[in-house]
User: What shape does this take?
Amino acid sequence: METKIKICGLTRLQDIEAVNAARPDYIGFVFAESRRRLTPQQALSLKRQLDPKIQSVGVFVNPSLETVLKIASQGILDIVQLHGDEPPAFVERVRRETGCPVVKAFRIKGEESLAALKAYGQADYLLLDAYNKNAYGGTGSAFNWELLDGNVSEKPFFLAGGLKPENIEKAIRTFRPYGVDISSGVETNGYKDPSKIEEIIKKIRRFDQ
Assistant: This one.
C-alpha cells in the first residue's frame, strides 16, 4: 500500500507552490496556538491556490465546536484533525456535524497513552505524535517508537514527530503506517523548504515502489 504523505503547517503562498509541485496527499493548516497558526481568511486564500487533488486538513487543539463548524463551513477543509484532549463524544459530534472525516491525534508518552486509542472508535484516522509538556505538536521530536511494537492500532494511523529524510524509510518499514505527517522535518530556519519537501516525498514514493 502506498504510504500517504501529509505536509503540515503551511503558512505562505510559496509553501502551496512547493506542495503543488511535489504532490503530497494532504497538507495541514494550523488553527491552534503555534508559530504556524493561520487565520481562517489566510487559510482560505491558500486553499484556493492548492491543487484540488491535495486534501486540506485543519488542525485544532481543544477548540469549541462552534469554531470548528465555522471554519469547516467556509470550504477550507476536507478533513478535521483534533490534536488536543478532546473526548470521544466531541470527536463524534465534529464528524457528524461537519461531514468531514476526523483525525484524532495522540501524544505518546508511554504505554498508557496507547491504551487511550481504543476509546476513539469514532475517529476515521489516528495520529501518533511525540509527547511534549509544553506543546501539542510540531516540536520536531520523535517519541519512543519501540512503544508501538505489537501495539499499533488496527485503525489507519499517521505517524508524526521528528520525521525527516534521514529516518523516514525506517519509520515506514517498521510500522507500515497509513500515512506520515511531516512539518519541521521539511523546514529551514522555521519555514517550509521546497527542496526538502521534494526530497522527502521522492524518497517515500521510491521506497513504496
Remarks:
- The beta strands are 4-8, 26-30, 55-60, 79-82, 102-108, 125-130, 157-160, 179-182, 187-188, 191-192.
- The CA atoms of residues 37 and 65 lie 18 Å apart.
- Helices lie at 13-22, 40-47, 65-72, 88-98, 111-115, 168-175, 194-208.
- The radius of gyration is 16 Å.
